[in-house]
Amino acid sequence: MELCELGSMRSYVKKNGPQSDRAVFDVHFCYHQKLCDFGLATHLRKGETACTVVGTPGYIAPQVFKQEYDQAADVYSLGGVLYTMLTGSDPPSKGPMRFDGLGMSAVELIESMMEQDAAKRIPLNGM
């Protein structure tokens, strides 16, 4: 995943280590970074669902594998990106996530973003 001018997020985290909760939440005010991969992007109108399975294991919402998903799948994937930025590891595709050293607010946010049930997942405008 590219992090604009800084190269890939994976190399940045490997070089600098996992980022603190505060550093990640403040990055918007300092750098206005944008994470994107338009090669896999699709535009969905309100109420539409997509049916193509694309992505990296651990970052893919369970609904994607059922081939019917909406914008809630993006929240799940964004939770995976946040997990990687704070822990230095990819989110596990199976088994529990490890949150060693993270503050409770970061853990709760990631867990709510990566909720398996899309209906219970925090919406983007709820963060």
Automatic annotation (TrEMBL):
InterPro entries: Kinase-like_dom_sf, Prot_kinase_dom. Residues 1-127 form the Protein kinase domain. This is Protein kinase domain-containing protein. One of its GO terms (molecular function) is protein serine/threonine kinase activity. It comes from Ancylostoma ceylanicum. SUPFAM superfamilies: Protein kinase-like (PK-like). It comes from the Eukaryota. Keywords: ATP-binding, Kinase, Nucleotide-binding, Serine/threonine-protein kinase, Transferase. PANTHER family: SERINE/THREONINE-PROTEIN KINASE PLK, SERINE_THREONINE-PROTEIN KINASE PLK4. One of its GO terms (cellular component) is nucleus.
